[in-house]
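Figure 2 data, in text form.
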Amino acid sequence: MVKSFKIGGEMKKIIILLSTIILVPYLFAYELYKPAGLEKIEKNLGLHMGRMSENDEVNIWVFFTDKGFFTENKYEENIAKFRNHLSARRRKRREKMIGKNIADFSDLGVVKDYVQRIVETGAKKRKISNWLNAASFTATKQELEEIEYMPFVRKMKMVETFYLEPEVDKQKGVKKMQKEEGFEFHYGSSKSQNSLIGIDEAHNHGYFGEGVRIGMLDDGFIMDTTKFEAFSHVSRNIIDTWDFINDTSYVGRQLGEDADQCKHGTSMLSIIAGFKDNELIGPAFNAEFALAKTEQRGAEIKQEEDNWVAGAEWADSCGSDKGGVDIISSSLGYKFFDDTIGYSYEDMNGDSTVITRAADLAASKGIVVVTAMGNISSGFGTQTARPGTCIVAPADADSIISVGAVDSNYTSGKWEWAWVWIDSVGYGAAIGPTADGRIKPEVCASWGGYHINPDYDPEAPDTAEEQPYYTGFGTSVSTALIAGGCALILQAHPDWSAMKVRDVLLQTASQSSSPDTLLGWGIADIWDAMNNEPLIPPAFEEDELSPPYPNPFNLQNQSQVVIPYNIMNQGLGGRIFIYTVSGKKIREIDLGSLLVPGRYETPAEGAATWDGKDSNGEFVDAGIYLVLLRTGYTSSTRKIAVVR
């Protein structure tokens, strides 16, 4: 029998107690069912509800008891179905996690009917988390009271909001370095941030992040290549985008949003992916990117934890191939305010906060999660200070890479824990340990980073004094650099799991034998980490042509032949020449004055095309033609057969 009764004017159903008693002991082994505790409403939400008026709303998490099945056979059936639909790329990433199943309970979907039942109370749906078996809603006090009595609701808590720590003022118009000689890349003012962690060595050996995907969770991204030359190549490397604030694929600034929306994300993307000769070169300029807009600008940058969780889950399966990313970079470090945040330093224990749990789940699915330790300010000017705001979620997670920061001491010439005084206010990188005593951060990189100035607009009179690039400071910068470095490690070792990347980074950092809670295992050395085991060579080692296609090229049936090429060296442009076998030049194709190293395989990616005509616009005769690529470093030839 099922007994019905009324709550809040709606008929509710209770599953008979006997079935619950029979199921629970059996199901606990599989965690298929988690019953509600004596109090479904967590303390902070309960206190907030006591202050709410009739029409007030609050954002809440609702955690469910189950996913709609209660037997081992049904669980295995659902898991098999999920595994069978995994894309090849996503499957391969997960299979690298030794000792882990490629799918588990957290991958299976939330029961849609549970979500719908809550929506029927009038509550507004925000985000769904399969990983956490939960969904977030905006609800009134009366709606909360109705939700509490639903039998499938295990727990309810507030969606917490995190605020960005103060950043140090940027230095605009930083003096450029002189162009460097030899094979080494021309980094300009981005030289220091790259060389400190061995990025330059990796670049000199041909590793640029090719084939690796980085998911970025930030406040949005401005991809205007007319303003930002350093982004001229990036658009072809973006595999997916999503705005979790406005539920749209556009991740730029929306009408009505704060004027500073998208500035932080743009800066961080440029640190990782930017490429401008003798100005700014990012560690992984040839990686692919999935861009998620999860933070909202206002008086401060704020992040609601359900947006971060949704962004991390999206990153697991984004892209047209549903392959997801290899790395998540989350550069924003957040501060906890006692009057608005339900978490304290004691909660920085690796298990308490929702985004910490989500970060560890992402790592368990083979994603290298790189996040900022956060920044501290004002009265914490000593290295022994341990304020409650010192470490921020999700930096306390145990399976991720939390990044601290170092700065150059101009007196000693040494790189030390980042701490500066500006107008009697101190700023520095957050330090550990976690509340449960674990060492944090994992590794460190440069506190200062040269990057795009999002305010720069050469056509706007009010920004005429702005410089196109400047230096910013904080663990945001160091996180972006380490995330880019991890892409080079994965390019050299595509078979390494997320945990192996983390472990090797720690083993090869500057103080790996004596880690502490100031710098963790020390300053990372990306090139050393890459050489921990024999490297897989990069896909190409010289400026060279790849096989043209289609070949043979039929002038009557095909409009053009594509001439792909690879560029290894930096700083010069190139040209493609087409000759007859007798040596007569019939066509010349200019590839531009600066070619970013990487693959140019399709016309959309910058590959050259030839329509079969000579320089006079006449179709050539059938026969064999020679294709010659010339850069400032080398030359390469291929053959094309033309038929009619």
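Caption note: The chain has 14 helices and 35 strands.
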